[in-house]
Amino acid sequence: MPKIRTLRTRKPPEGWDLIEPALEEFTKQMREIEVAPSESRRKVEMLRPIHQLNHQRSKYIYNLFYKKHEISRELYEYCLQEKYADPVLIAKWKKPGFEKLCCLMCIQKTNQNFSTSCICRVPKDKLDENRLFECRHCGCRGCSSGD
After folding, report:
1. Could you give the number of structural domains in the chain?
2. Where can this protein be found (predicted)?
3. Do 67 and 134 sit in the same domain of this protein?
4. If you average pLDDT over residues 98-125, what whole number do you get?
5. Which pairs from 57-62 meet CB under 8 Å and 24+ separation?
6. What is the tens place of the pLDDT at every residue in 6-27?
7. Which residue range(s) make up the domain with 60?
8. pTM of the predicted model as reported, rounded to 2 decimal places
């Protein structure tokens, strides 16, 4: 999650003005999520919108650099250093089998029952078709690359 920025530590590289409006919109959405009332939700459901927005923001920067090649390496590294994107999640997306990974909590075996992966990492053809499965951490319904 990005820190609240009051003063930038260094000057942003060239091309920053192209992605700044989108990143400011993500920051605005994050603030709205943080101040939203959460009394009626369970503890695990309160963090779901934050995980989802973190995924969207990281995927936006990942796509701009690796898929569309619209930003420079310098700007990409600046975004990672300023915590606009999650570098560990992006590193997982580059590995085979993790292209659709929703959050890092789904692959941590310590957070799951029976020390296995999350239910959203199981391919949909292996699950019962009549039941809806949902990750208890982020609300994902399937981020397995085999889908």
Report:
1. 2
2. Nucleus
3. no
4. 73
5. 57/23, 57/26, 57/84, 57/85, 58/85, 58/86, 58/89, 58/90, 59/93, 60/22, 60/26, 60/85, 61/19, 61/85, 61/90, 62/90, 62/93
6. 555 678 899 999 999 999 999 9
7. 16-94
8. 0.82
